[in-house]
């Protein structure tokens, strides 16, 4: 019985982008492990992807094209051949495109982060068609813009050097759950004497294992960062030389920060003033000091400003001078992806289609044609995403997907909540069945993914499906003939040694150890921009400031609780919810509450509760497990609606309001009321 081991890459939306080793026996993947030769992976995978063989060979995989055979949303389908499905889809899309191609909307995100299966042939196809563009904002645009306007790009410390830090701020990140390989590095620093501080409204597994936890109110991080600056200034824990040479707008920032004594921030953040003072002293007097910032801080109204405020800190103390000092939110800007070669924007041929924000898909699917909006959305092609489960304000999203006059095609592995609303479901390959090449946002190595097994059933890769559709629609440009393997080579062109990728599966980028030790920020001024002219030009505050939540805790008497909805550890967004072994670990959909908030509502631990506001209502079980702070509830995400209670999940109550920068989502800026269900 022949056994082989194939090198690959984890496709999931996770900072760690692990190198995989898949063991194959008789054409079946029997084991998926971490590649020990890849330092960032260190031979270790998370529990989720250790189950990747189970996911791939799952009995409920979609293995043939399916056509809807019941009412919209009924989830009833019949198998059809690829020819029937592709002919009919091409006919329907052509018919709509003849009227206005912008009535067609692609909807995708990072179900796979692969550059080939996520942003190559699909983009070529929709560019050639002239379809609406999608603003892919559902995760990181607020923080991304915040970084760009401060440091100049999605760049920061090299993750491995956190091991040498003496103080690590883990800010808006449950590293144990969602950035496991960073946590291993932080543990090493801890063993070598580093102090770990967690800043998070939830008492996470990570917070419990740090030396200190600042359990602030959601959406108040900028106030905390400004108070830290205040203390750095009044105690003169500043690197004046670094500030003078490598920053822009110091006097203005100084004046702003002096408006934020710790007492004021303590009031806004709901923290003891002593805890803020202590953190400022530690940060001002410990070297090297490092900040692992994560996207949890930027899912509230002021998310962009919060990231800007935090990203200013290392320039004030000169922490950037050492390789173990600075901040890391994302490293993805370091990757020289050849996007024009991959995506062919030239196929737009001078057209500039409108862009639809994926966060507001609920409202946008319900809009009529108008001069301001353009044509009504008549067709949706969904891949690498499960919007009916993950997009905010799901009552509206569901209503939109249920439109009888909407033509919906979903490329999927499983019959998700979104696939239930499809007219056609097309079977997609998993990472074990196709080629791809990857960037990472938590380290700086390029990874290659080789197929380990043949496509299961009649599954085809996303790139193959768009290639097939292009042929059906008469798109004859040569770029539609590129194979998946050729696309892998085009992703980085000459910038990355493809032979090395073929040989070992990964290739480190040549990035400097201490990127801003001597300034050199890729901003317009070349400095760390405390003051941003680009923001001023957009009519925004040019300095980082505290922007209160749209729905601040306690501001509404009807909905007095602030809800955040961070990821459950054993799911990845809504992926893996349908894996029995992982769902068994998570148990059931939970709402963590503070015992006092539960007691006044007559709610006992484990009771079924109703979480609601003017948008919707969600049923789950109360967990009085010590993780919630008073006034804040934590609704762990993101369950499939159909696997939760009453066919709902936490996004019943989240809103489509946007962030200060980047037009991102505000999942963690959400006021609710809670009552005992049936009460
Ligand atoms: N297991 C698992 N891993 C994941 C994911 C997953 O769903 N499951 N998701 C992946 C994705 S898509 C992403 S984008 C990345 C990063 O995704 P993130 O959402 O950054 O992941 P977390 O590290 O869980 O960080 C969220 C943390 O921020 C906290 N938080 C919420 N509001 C605030 C706030 O206002 N201020 C502060 N300081 N903290 C706040 C939450 O309590 C939570 O602990 O993780 C990825 N990794
Ligand atoms: N309330 C709340 N909502 C949230 C969040 C939160 O913290 N709280 N987090 C938000 C964040 S950070 C993000 S990034 C979004 C993520 O939302 P999504 O990007 O929609 O992520 P997933 O829910 O993992 O869904 C990805 C889907 O892609 C499919 N898929 C995977 N690989 C392939 C492939 O190769 N081909 C095809 N055709 N399909 C594939 C998977 O089967 C899965 O169903 O959710 C957001 N929603
Ligand atoms: S989800 Fe993250 S930690 Fe888990 S295997 Fe993938 S990259 Fe590694
Ligand atoms: Mo995300």
Instruction: Estimate nothing, just give the exact number of structural domains.
Output: 4
Spatial arrangement of strands, main beta sheet:
5-4-17-16-15-6
Q: What structural class is derived from the secondary structure elements?
A: alpha/beta
Bound molecules: ligand MGD, iron/sulfur cluster, molybdenum atom
Under the CATH scheme, which architecture of the largest domain would be assigned? 3-Layer(aba) Sandwich
Main sheet makeup: 6 strands, mixed
What is the average per-residue confidence, as pLDDT, rounded to a whole number? 97
- Helical residue percent? 25-40%
Would you count the extended β strands for me?
A: 27
Oligomer: single chain
What integer value in Å does the Rg equal?
25 Å
Here the CATH topology of the largest domain equals Rossmann fold
Strand content: 15-25%
Unreliable residue stretches: none
What gross morphology would you assign?
A: globular
Please report the distance between the alpha carbons of the first and last residues: 60 Å
Can you describe this structure?
It is a single chain. By secondary structure, the chain is an alpha/beta fold. The termini are far apart. It has four domains: 4-56, ADC-like domains (N-terminal domain of TfIIb, Single Sheet); 66-138 and 345-434 and 447-481 and 504-508, 3-Layer(aba) Sandwich (Rossmann fold), CATH 3.40.50.740; 143-329, 3-Layer(aba) Sandwich (Dimethylsulfoxide Reductase, domain 2); 561-676, Barwin-like endoglucanases (Beta Barrel), CATH 2.40.40. Helix 10 (221-234) packs parallel to helix 15 (303-317). The site of one ligand MGD has 31 residues, from helix 7.
């Amino acid at each position: 019985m022949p056994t082989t081991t194939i090198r690959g890459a984890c496709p999931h939306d996770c900072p760690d982008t692990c190198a995989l080793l898949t063991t194959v026996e008789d054409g079946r993947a029997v084991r998926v492990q971490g590649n020990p030769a890849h330092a960032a992976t260190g031979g270790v995978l998370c529990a989720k992807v250790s189950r990747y063989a189970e996911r791939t060979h799952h009995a409920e995989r979609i293995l043939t094209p399916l056509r809807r055979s019941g009412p919209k949303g009924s989830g009833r389908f019949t198998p059809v051949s690829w020819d029937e499905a592709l002919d009919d889809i091409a006919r329907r899309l052509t018919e709509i495109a003849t009227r206005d191609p912008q009535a067609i909307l692609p909807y995708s995100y990072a179900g796979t982060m692969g550059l080939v299966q996520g942003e190559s042939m699909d983009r070529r196809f929709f560019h050639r068609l002239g379809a609406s563009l999608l603003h892919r904002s559902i995760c990181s645009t607020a923080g991304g813009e915040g970084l760009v306007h401060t440091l100049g790009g999605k760049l920061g410390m090299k993750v491995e050097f956190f091991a040498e830090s003496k103080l690590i701020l883990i800010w808006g990140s449950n590293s144990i759950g969602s950035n496991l390989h960073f946590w291993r590095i932080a543990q090493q620093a801890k063993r070598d004497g580093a102090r770990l501080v967690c800043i998070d409204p939830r008492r996470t597994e990570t917070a419990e294992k740090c030396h200190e936890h600042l359990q602030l109110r959601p959406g108040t991080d900028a106030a905390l960062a400004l108070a830290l600056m205040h203390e750095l200034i009044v105690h003169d824990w500043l690197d004046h030389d670094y500030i003078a040479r490598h920053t822009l707008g110091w006097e203005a920032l100084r004046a702003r920060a002096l408006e934020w004594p710790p007492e004021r921030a303590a009031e806004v953040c709901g923290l003891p003033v002593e805890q803020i003072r202590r953190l400022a002293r530690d940060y001002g007097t410990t070297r090297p000091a490092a900040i692992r910032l994560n996207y949890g801080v930027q899912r509230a109204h002021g998310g962009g400003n919060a990231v800007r405020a935090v990203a200013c800190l290392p320039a004030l103390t000169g922490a950037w001078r050492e390789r173990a000092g600075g901040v890391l939110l994302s490293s993805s800007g370091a990757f020289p992806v050849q996007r024009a070669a991959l995506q062919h924007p030239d196929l737009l041929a001078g057209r500039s289609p409108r862009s639809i924000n994926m966060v507001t898909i609920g409202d946008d699917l319900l809009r009529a044609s108008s001069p301001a909006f353009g044509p009504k959305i008549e067709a949706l092609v969904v891949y690498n995403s499960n919007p009916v489960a993950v997009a905010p304000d799901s009552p509206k999203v569901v209503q939109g997907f249920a439109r009888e006059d909407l033509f919906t095609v979903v490329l999927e592995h499983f019959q998700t909540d979104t696939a239930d609303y499809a007219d056609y479901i097309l079977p997609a390959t998993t990472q074990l069945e196709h080629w791809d090449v990857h960037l990472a946002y938590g380290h700086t190595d390029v990874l290659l993914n080789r197929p380990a097994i043949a496509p299961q059933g009649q599954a085809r890769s996303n790139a193959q499906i768009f290639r097939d559709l292009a042929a059906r629609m008469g798109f004859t440009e040569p770029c539609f003939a590129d194979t998946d393997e050729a696309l892998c080579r085009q992703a980085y062109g000459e910038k990355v040694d493809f032979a090395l990728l073929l040989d070992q599966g990964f290739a480190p980028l040549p990035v400097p150890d201490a990127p801003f030790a001597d300034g050199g920020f890729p901003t317009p001024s070349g400095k760390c921009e405390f003051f941003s002219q680009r923001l001023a030009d957009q009519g925004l505050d040019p300095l980082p400031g505290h922007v209160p939540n749209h729905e601040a805790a306690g501001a509404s008497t009807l909905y007095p609780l602030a809800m955040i909805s961070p990821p459950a550890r054993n799911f990845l967004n809504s992926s893996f919810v349908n894996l029995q072994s992982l769902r068994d670990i998570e148990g059931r959909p939970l709402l963590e509450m503070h015992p006092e908030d539960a007691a006044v509502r007559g709610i006992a631990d484990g009771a079924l509760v109703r979480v609601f506001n003017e948008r919707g209502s969600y049923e789950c079980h109360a967990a009085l497990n010590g993780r919630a702070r008073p006034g804040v509830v934590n609704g762990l995400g993101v369950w499939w609606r159909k696997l939760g209670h009453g066919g709902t999940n936490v996004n019943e109550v989240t809103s489509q309001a946007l962030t200060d920068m980047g037009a991102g989502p505000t999942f963690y800026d959400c006021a609710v009321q809670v009552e005992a269900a049936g009460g």
